Every structure is written in C-alpha cells, then in structure tokens.
Amino acid sequence: MEITTGEMDEVYKISEERLKQALDAESKIVQLKTVMHSLEEKISDIGSENQVLRQQTLLNCIISLLLSKECLRKERERVSNYLYSSSETKLLEKVQHELLVTYANRLLEKEHSGCRALLRDNKVEDLSRMYRLYCKIPRGLEPVANVFKQHVTAEGTALVQQAEDACRQVSP
Prior knowledge:
Elements: H1 5-82, H2 85-101, H3 104-109, H4 115-120, H5 124-134, H6 141-170
Helix pairs in contact: 1-2, 1-5
C-alpha cells in the first residue's frame, strides 16, 4: 500500500492543524497561569489589607482607652489644682460619663476593635485597662459584662459543636 502525494499533503495539513491547536492551547494555559498568579497576588494583598485594617481598628480601640485614661488623669489634676475639692467628684463623674458612657456601646461593640476583639486576641492588659476605667462608673461594667457573656457563650457553643462533630466522625 503506497501513500499518494495527496494523502501525504492531507496528513501534513492535519498535523499542522493539530500542532497549531496544541500551540494555541499551550498559549491559553500560559495566559491562564498568568491570570491565576495575578489573582492569587490580589487575594493575598486583600488578605494582608484586611489584616492591617483589623489591627488598625483594634489599635484605635486601645488608643481610645489610653486617651480616656490620660484625659481622666489630666482632669483630676486640673480639678485638684484649680477647683474646690467638693466639685471634684461631680466634674470627674461628668468627664467619665462623656468619655466612657456616651460612647461605650460604639467602643465596646466594634467588630474588629471593641471588647470582642480584645477578648478574641487575648489582650489582657487592654481588658484590664478597660475594667479599671469602667468599674468606676455606676453600672459601667454592665455593657462590658454583656459583651463578655456573648463572647463566652459563642466560644462555648463553638467548642461544644466541635466536640459533637468529633464524636460524629468517630462513631459509625
């Protein structure tokens, strides 16, 4: 069986088409890999930006607590230097109320920087500072206690759920 020139040309033509298809496919694969790499970098950047944003908002809460503490200290000093001692209690209560009570819910409830974030990130020193500031205010610890209760409930529920899931995986 002999192959004719026409058949040979047809084989070459088919081979060229398949080679071209293979090269096109390879080119598309390279393009897809480039796009995937670019997307992975963007996702990584977004994750980094999100982490930075959470850290910044947590820092803002901590700074707010520190500024409140410093403002209260300066106000006590000012009262003792310039006012009658009898007015000290009333003035300090008013300052504490403005600094801590008026904005308490906003400060405590912030998702990435409030009391929940301090509990989640185990910021014991900052939680201690928050306690020292709020314990001086009548009923000041109630909002802190509510957030703490919600945190403990959520963490406990998650642990119970993990234990139940582990038991389901072990038992047939």
